[in-house]
Amino acid sequence: MNLYNKITSRIKEIRQQKNYTQEELSILAFGEPAKSRINSVELGRRGANIHTIEKILNALGYTLAVVTLEKAEEVERELNEEN
């Protein structure tokens, strides 16, 4: 799994931990209900830009920098385990 997909999967994990529906998160992040937009991002289907991902993470109380670092370290561990 690449870094982008790890970040988008983490968005789903955080949303579920906070007990938000996709629609609720969409309203918090974008001010409008757009469940399909959140779903596409969480599944890594849509090449969401950094601004979109950042808005979603900020709505969840996270920063893109923190989640990126967290997931980059995970990718690095996986690569080390493969070698």
Would you mind describing this structure in some detail?
By secondary structure, this protein is mainly alpha-helical. It has one domain (about 5-80): 434 Repressor (Amino-terminal Domain) (Orthogonal Bundle). Helices cover about 75% and strands about 0% of the residues. It has helices at about 5-15, 20-30, 35-40, 50-60, 65-80. Helix 1 packs across helix 5, helix 2 crosses helix 3 and helix 2 packs across helix 4 (about 50-60).
Set down the secondary structure blueprint.
Blueprint: H1 3-17, H2 22-30, H3 35-42, H4 50-59, H5 64-82
Q: What would CATH call the homologous superfamily?
A: lambda repressor-like DNA-binding domains
* Proportion of residues in β-strands: under 5%
Percentage of residues assigned to helices: over 70%
Query: Overall mean pLDDT score?
Result: 88
**End-to-end CA span:** 16 Å
Give the topology string: H per helix, E per strand: HHHHH
List keywords for this structure.
single chain, 83 residues, mainly alpha, 434 Repressor (Amino-terminal Domain), 73% helix, elongated
Summarize the structure.
By secondary structure, the chain is an all-alpha fold. It has a single domain, classed as Orthogonal Bundle (434 Repressor (Amino-terminal Domain)), CATH 1.10.260. 73% of the residues lie in helices and 0% in strands.
